[in-house]
Every structure is written in C-alpha cells, then in structure tokens.
Specification:
Length: about 270
C-alpha cells in the first residue's frame, strides 16, 4: 500500500481490532482510496452479481452491468418510485446514480463516511436533481426519525465497528412500514449475530437468500479485466491492496468464498406499521 501497510497485515488488523478501531481503519482506507484513484470511470466498488433477470441498461451503463446488477437484486422487490430513499455506504456513488435514474425516487440521499468519496460523487453526479451525497457515520445518522420510505445498504456494513448501532439507526430513520434492503458478506457465525440485531431492532425479515454463487460467478467473469485494469491504472505500490479489496482471484476474500467459509447474503426487511 502507498500507506505503508501490506494488504494482508491490514486485513489482520481489521479482524482483531475492536469496533471503533476497525471503523477508523476502514475510514482511513477509503479516504486514501478516493484520493489515490479519482478516475471518473471507477465508480463502483462492489463484487458484482450474475443475474438472468438483470435490468435493461443504457449504453453508458452497460460496461458496469455486473456491478449494477448487485444493486438491482438488492432493491428490485420494492417500489422506489416517488419515494424518499437513503443509501448508507454509497462509496463512489455509481450505484446511487443508477438507482436515482432507473427507479425514479422522489429523493435519494446517499451517505458515506469518506469525505473524499462524497466530494467526488457530488462533483460527478451534480446534474441529477433527485440525488445528493453527504458525509455521515452509519452508526450515528443525523437524519430525523421516520424520514425515509426505503433504506438500502450494499456491501458496506462489514466495515462498521458496531453493526447493532447501524441497524438501530436504520430502524429509527425508516417510516413505519418502510423497507430495508441489505446485502453483504459474512461468515456463518457472524451472520447469526446480524440476524440477532435485526430481531432486536424489531425489523421483520421478509426474505433472505444466500447469493454467494452469483457473486462468485461475477468475480470470475470480470477477474482478468479487473486485474488488468488495476495493473494499468493503479500505482504499483497500491496494486496488491486494490486486488485484495476488489476480490481478485487468489486474495483472501475470493478464496474464502470458494472454500465456503464466507457467504454473501441478501435480505429484505420491513419496519412494522
């Protein structure tokens, strides 16, 4: 890494650190990521999803199909049209931009704890009138109670220091009857804790699915292109870190998916009326 910490040591620090320290480490990494790679064609940070029910895309979005399909599978069972929507963990904003255009919410507020990523997204997507980006802490959102019809969160919550606080914040800002669309990866013991947080927050689980197979297929399909792009566009000192972060073949997350010790999940939850 340009930061002077090899990727595997960084991963170990994340695993053994307490919640608040882990949250700080992720924030630090994302800030460096945004500053080190501000190319406008790097707008998605997720692993992708193979989907035979994928949406129709404009020509400008087709190159990002697998990444967009991960967002689509997360929100496709709810109607966002003319709704007030919140994305927590918006990264570089590509998913929020596509959803704001495709699903036509009345408003989509996309928040992230990386100031650099938020600044990039606000610059890139300034022309989309129903979309805005803001720096926020997922565990202590500043929005009012019962503010949003739908909250969604894609491949972000594994970075949070306290998942329980995040889930409670989602419940707080959702309107009664509102939906929470969540997708991320966990090992089997940890997903049990996630289920407990949902139950304790009184969020009703409408559906849940293990989508590891589809995510791994997407990683395989784009592996060579992703590795090539990292080799061409990322400074040499940061390439191993980018490969690890991107789930390139041979990296710890990829191999854990292959071994079945790490799983990718998709949940649809609802706040009671």
């Amino acid at each position: 890494m340009a930061m002077g910490i090899p990727a595997r040591i960084f991963a170990t620090l994340l695993r053994i650190s307490p919640g608040r320290t882990r949250n700080w480490l992720w924030k630090w990494w994302y800030q460096r990521l945004a500053k080190a790679h501000n190319r406008s064609d790097f707008r998605f940070m997720n692993y992708g999803f193979i989907d035979d029910k994928g949406p129709e895309l404009d020509d400008e979005d087709e190159a990002y199909r697998l990444f967009i399909q991960l967002y689509h599978q997360n929100i496709r069972d709810v109607d966002l049209s003319n709704k007030d929507v919140l994305e927590v963990g918006s990264g570089r904003g590509g998913g929020a931009s596509w959803i704001a255009k495709y699903a036509e919410p009345r408003s989509l507020l996309a928040v992230d704890f990386s100031k650099s990523a938020v600044e990039l997204a606000n610059k890139w997507y300034a022309s989309q009138k129903n979309l805005s980006f803001k720096e926020e802490n997922a565990e202590a959102l500043t929005m009012s109670d019962s503010s949003f019809d739908i909250v969604y969160n894609v491949e972000s919550s594994h970075c949070y220091g306290n998942m329980g606080k995040f889930v409670n914040e989602v419940y707080r800002v959702l309107k009664p009857g509102g939906f929470f669309c969540w997708t991320d990866f966990r090992d089997k013991p940890t997903i049990k804790s996630v289920n407990s947080f949902f139950e304790e927050a009184k969020l009703e689980i409408i559906s849940k699915k293990d989508i590891t197979k589809e995510v791994l297929m997407a990683l395989d399909e784009i592996n060579d292109d992703k590795a090539k792009a990292i080799g061409e566009k990322v400074p040499r000192t940061m390439r191993k870190s980018f490969e690890t972060f991107a789930g390139v073949e041979g990296t710890p997350v990829y191999e854990a998916f292959k071994a079945g010790t790490l799983h990718y999940y998709r949940y649809l939850l609802k706040k009671p009326e």
